[in-house]
Amino acid sequence: MKPKSRLQAARHRRGWTQGELIDALVAAAARLGVEAPSPTSWKTLVSMYENGRRPMSADHRLLFREAYEATDEELGFPSADFLLDEHASPPGQDLRSKLPVAVNTEMLRYLTSVLQQHAQAEPLVGPQFLVAPVQSQMPLIEAMCREAYGPLREEVLRVGTRYAEFLGWLYQDTGHVQEATRWTRLAMEYAHELGDPTLIAYVFQRRSNIATEAGHAGHGAGLASAGLRYASHLSPRAHAIVLRQLANSKAGLGEHGETARVIDQALAETDSGDDSDPVAGYCSVSFIEMEAANCDVRLGRPDQAVDTFRESLRHWPTVQERDRGLCLARLATANVVLEDVEGAHQAAVQAVGIARQTGSARILNELYRLQPRLARWHKLVEVSELNRELDTMKRAAPPPTLGAP
Asked: Is the dihedral of CA 252, 258, 264, 267 positive or negative?
């Protein structure tokens, strides 16, 4: 039977009965600390909601988003953040600022735990499966940041900063620059109000990364330098991640000496840092080596870059699969500049597999930029097959736009 609504289709895609959906809604209410109807009442409501016989209240929409880990659009809800029902406030009152319950520590613990799980999964699975569930949490988090006051406000802002920054990163890695910029700016707003130097510096380098990848290296260098004003407050790895972003920007500006100096400093910080750092634990030596090699490619030193890429890949952390794909794609570029077509092909084929698995636009962008460089060898069977596969991927989803390299 064809689903009557997107809400019903969401349940069918998961293979859930109405009873299983009701169990998920009850569990969602418990996690969020929200009062919800009884299972008996839910049975009637679910049927009415799925068949469009009753508009859904804001608090119930929150629970459906949580249960399905989906956005309003995916569930067929209107674009506004609320719907009026018989208990709604008078017309003209902004219902979006109202939480179903007061902000409490249980809500914060739940949101923090979910974010940690998403952050652990993201380097392995990439952004494509995480944008929707993270996005679905943002209406609640934004409402909390609007309403919270007193002793809990600081922790609410901390959660808000981390979620907004993470969502900005997911959008960047899927090629949506405007959304990436929007959420990263919101993270900066929260971080500044919070006054946490580590989060302020980290978000500055995220904004720098977006600007630099969009081809605005001067702006990127300025933002990274702003982050380094907080260097004395940063852990070694958080310091290193800001430094590597400054190096990327300096390479984009063609500053050889400054790039090398900053990379050396970042490597020294990373080597002494703790990988349990909650903000920049992913910043391993291999990661900085990959960034150093990418700088070398930008500065016209592909031979040096190839050696560094290969050394980095030899001891790459197994949990950083998406970044390994990016490293391989960049290695392919360095190889083709040196006219090592076989090496370029081998690295590119591995990168294609990881790009398919993770949906990372940054890997795909690197591979799409590789194609014109391989044009001289397009008649080779392996190059022809690689081009055909990349062209198929382009047709399936047009190349994302992240800006100039």
From this structure: negative
